[in-house]
Amino acid sequence: MNIRICKALFMKDLKNCFVNKNVFLMLALPVLFGVMYKFLLGDILKGATGSFVIVMCIIMTISIVPLNVLANMVAEEKEKHTLRSLMLANVSATDFLLSKAFVALVLMLIDGILIFLVCQEPMEYFGYFLIFYVLSSLSVLFFGALVGLLSKDQMSAGTLSSPLMILLMLPPMFSQLNEMIEKIAVIFPTTSFQTLYLQLSVQQPFFNQETVIAIIVCIVWILLGVIAFMYGYKKKGLDD
Questions:
Q1: How far apart are CA 196 and CA 207, in angstroms?
Q2: Which residues form the ABC-2 type transporter transmembrane domain (predicted)?
Q3: What is the percent of the chain where pLDDT is above 70?
């Protein structure tokens, strides 16, 4: 891995993201929902604001950005056949992918911080929030790269990522409605973030069975994502 090349690619990819209307819309949606829930529907939701709002918006961010934005970034490069040119400029596929994954993580952090500020959460939660958020984000990040790797173009990337986004968003949102859904929801990293963050507002010891399971779920998803991506890259590659 070449640090100088990764830095150059990171700056290029970050700049391209802010001029890409589709990427900008996907990044703006969770923040706009936070504004709508917090300020426009605050009187209706009453006690459901605060932690409820930030959890729903962050679940949306974790589901959308890696599986849509990152997948489209990788698929766009494949569609334009620009990786071959980058390789001729001594850019390895590892440099290429790491730069895009890091861009996606930075964009997610920007989104998360904006949502945290919009929801006006206690600042003493901020450090814990970032830890839980990054852990949950990494759980999905490599799967987003894998979707882009398996897609021929941006359209197919959107087609592949849509059901996965729904799969990540729905279980934690409906986990309180049905006991079976609650049991299934535990295996998703979006539910892990919900469990970990909501535990902060409970006046009890942080580490219990639920929070330990949530952390283990995130670690397992990260490992599975790395293994799946490495297998997919070996079988398909980027420059095909």
A1: 9
A2: 50-226
A3: 86
* Distance, CA of 169 to CA of 14 (rounded, Å): 26
Helix 93-118 with 71-80: angle, nearest 10 deg: 140
Residue 213 in tokens: 């399971």
Q: Is 237 left (phi over 0), alpha (psi -120 to 50) or beta?
A: left
pLDDT at residue 215 greater than cutoff 90: yes
Q: According to the model, what pLDDT value does residue 221 have?
A: 93
Average pLDDT of 20-39? 82
Separation of alpha carbons 88 and 91, rounded Å = 7
* 58 CB-near residues (< 8 Å, 6+ apart): 30, 112, 115, 133, 136, 193, 197
Binning the chain into helix, strand and coil, the percentages to the nearest 5 are: 85, 0, 15
Residues 6+ apart with CB under 8 A from 30: 57, 58, 60, 61, 64, 111, 115
Phi-psi region of 46 (alpha: psi -120 to 50; beta: other; left: phi over 0): left
Sign of the dihedral through C-alpha 129, 130, 131, 132 = positive
Query: Could you report the per-residue pLDDT of 8-29, keeping only the tens digit for each?
Result: 777 877 777 777 777 788 888 8
Average pLDDT, the chain: 81
Dig out the tokens for 148 from the structure. Answer: 């882009």
